[in-house]
Design a protein that fits this description.
Layout: H1 4-14, E1 20-23, H2 26-32, E2 40-41, H3 48-54, E3 59-60, E4 66-69, E5 72-75, H4 78-93, H5 95-105, H6 130-141, H7 149-155, H8 160-171, H9 175-193, H10 198-204, H11 210-220, H12 225-232
Parallel strand pairs: 1-5, 2-3
Antiparallel strand pairs: 4-5
Helix pairs in contact: 4-5, 7-8, 9-10, 9-11, 9-12
């Protein structure tokens, strides 16, 4: 149980602030004070279900590294708090000052708030089905290969319906969403480490065209590939 005195101080001080924010489990303090009711927020992945269950008036964005729903801002953890701080500096004082602060901190300009708390590759380790684990490794090794549902189902010698059921149960994502996330991560790495043009990056990462890649980036990260390249440098 959170201390009433602490919650009371936070509620009182919030009325004087332009923004009210929390990192990690600090979201529970704001929620207890009623400050998150009706807002979209995030918290550390380990506590997101607990937060959602304890405070049903709060909408928990399960996988975002930070969420801004003015006047409330929340971050998933300490490193995500740095990303959120850089975003707020950019909003208040411009991109150049945010870049200077990022350089002093020796971090990327900022990760977009909608970015997942997990790398898609980390999910491979939790899959128990060995054949499926090999398939996920194949996707990582060659994202531009044929990873349609029929092709992947054939590799596991099963029907498309059964494959989709097994994949979604084991991985927690549909096959299509997983492949898109994997390709976005492959494209991100190429954008961050090479000078290849967007069309070349799109082909190497399995998107085929720069426009298809742009739409996937907007869905997954909330920014286009060109902006991600600029920020990462």
């Amino acid at each position: 149980m959170l201390e009433r005195e602490l919650v009371g101080h936070v509620r009182r001080l919030s009325h004087r602030a332009r923004r009210v924010g929390a990192m990690c489990t600090g979201a529970f303090v704001l929620a207890e004070g009623g400050l998150l009711d009706g807002h979209h927020v995030t918290t550390h992945w380990r506590f997101r279900e607990e937060l959602a269950a304890a405070y049903p008036a709060v909408t928990v964005e399960a996988d975002a590294i930070f969420v801004q729903d003015p006047p409330i801002v929340t971050a998933a953890g300490v490193s995500a708090g740095v990303d959120l701080a850089l975003s707020l500096i950019e909003q208040d004082h411009g991109a150049e000052l945010a870049r200077q602060v990022a350089r002093w901190l020796v971090v990327f300009m900022q990760r977009p708030g909608g970015q997942s708390q997990f790398s898609v590759w980390q999910q491979t380790q939790t899959v128990r089905n060995q054949a499926l684990r090999r398939l996920l490794c194949d996707i990582a090794a060659d994202p531009a290969a044929d990873h349609t549902v029929p092709a992947m189902a054939a590799r596991l010698s099963t029907s498309t319906r059964n494959f989709t059921r097994i994949f979604s149960r084991e991985v927690g994502l549909s096959p299509g969403k997983y492949v898109e996330r994997a390709r976005v991560e492959a494209a991100r790495l190429l954008l961050e480490t090479t000078t290849e043009g967007l069309e070349v990056v799109a082909r190497h990462s399995g998107f085929g065209t720069a426009e298809t890649m742009r739409r996937a980036f907007m869905r997954q990260l909330g920014i286009p590939p060109s902006t991600h390249r600029q920020r990462s440098r």
